[in-house]
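Worked problem 6 (solution included).
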Amino acid sequence: MRLVVDLNKCQGYAQCAFLAPDVFAMHGEESLVYNPHAPEEQRERLARAVAACPVQAITADGLDDSRDGGEASDAR
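Solution. The predicted structure is:
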């Protein structure tokens, strides 16, 4: 899973850092640092962090991939 944060949009609300502290952290009061290649076990926390961003600065490629695959497997 690959994360991208638009740092021009990010306003430093830090909702992501509260919800997924193993992936996002605030450096100082307004500077966000993050792991762009988040581990799979952080998927649920990342989904919450992406949804909670007030300015929608976070995108996660592959966030829904395994969920779609899991539903297809369950349907069999």
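Discussion: Residues 43 and 50 are 10 Å apart (CA to CA).
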